Amino acid sequence: MNLILTRTDYPSPDVAMGTVAFDKYSFYTLQHDFTPPGTYTLIPHIVQNGPLKGLKTYCLINPELGVFEEQSGYTGAYPMRYAILIHPGNWAHDSIGCILPGIARDTLYPKPNVGGSQVAFRQIMGFLGGVAGHTLEIRDVQTAA
Predict the structure, then answer these.
(1) Tens digits of per-residue pLDDT, 5-27?
(2) Which of 22, 35, 55, 112 reaches 20 to 30 Å from 8, CA-CA?
(3) Three-class SS of the chain
(4) How far does CA 2 lie from the centroid of its chain?
(5) Which residues lie across from 45 on neighbouring strands?
(6) How far is CA 75 from the centre of its chain?
(7) Could you count the other beta carbons within 10 Å of the beta carbon of residue 69?
């Protein structure tokens, strides 16, 4: 399955909001310190530490854009990033680079957020089925102010 994440709002220089869509479904997204636009392979991933330890999720991978599952010796054109996950969370500070899905959102600065993140996350995981073979395309679209 191919998911498309379209970033449309930038409430601050390091926070992006948008939507992720696939089939007939769509959810809001929040991402802090976001990854470059492009197509990423989604691989099943289990969080190994931190407050989400044991969570089954997906990790974004694109070696050409410097995005890996784990730290590596990458020395390409983009800053190396790793463990960029899709996981529940409501506020930008709940993540560094990961994608937080929600069923509601508020773009007001300084507290942009998504609501119903646990519900959205469970639905996305259910649709993806915990198996490999999915991609996520990230697109940037600047909306008129």
Answers:
(1) 999 988 888 889 999 999 899 99
(2) 55
(3) CEEEEEEEEEEECCEEEEEEEECCEEEEEEEECCCCCEEEEEEEEECCCCCCCCCEEEEEEEHHHCEECCCCCCCCCCCCEECCEECCCCEHHHCCCCEEEECEEECCCCCCEEECHHHHHHHHHHHHCCCCCEEEEEEECCCCC
(4) 14
(5) 57
(6) 23
(7) 15
Q: How far apart are CA 34 and CA 13, in angstroms?
A: 10
Cis before 11 (ω within 30): no
88 Rama sector, left if φ>0, alpha if ψ -120 to 50, beta otherwise: beta
Residue that the structure tokens 């649709």 belong to? 127
Residues whose CB falls within 8 Å of the CB of residue 47, separated by 6 or more in sequence, listed in order: 53, 54, 55, 57, 85, 87
Q: What is the distance in angstroms between the CA of the first residue and the CA of the last residue of the chain?
A: 33
